[in-house]
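Q: My labmate handed me this sequence with no annotations at all. I'd like to see what the chain might look like in three dimensions before we decide whether it's worth expressing. Could you predict it?
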Amino acid sequence: MAELEQEFIRESVQDRRRRARLRQQSAARSRQRRRYREYKRGSIRFVLLVLSMIATAVVVTIVMFEMLAWVLG
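A: Here is what I predict for the chain of 73 residues:
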């Protein structure tokens, strides 16, 4: 009977350790996914910022030359 109790206790301890390890692994995967999403979102924002700056420069250049042509014309 004592052997059964000890085996039960040993299995309980192993099960608790396994659950704790699985919980930690799950939390680590969740943190990794969150970091990846933030990285991806940041990259997209940077690309949009660069594109908007280029578009602004193109529009300003076109308007500047149109005004110059209008003033000199």
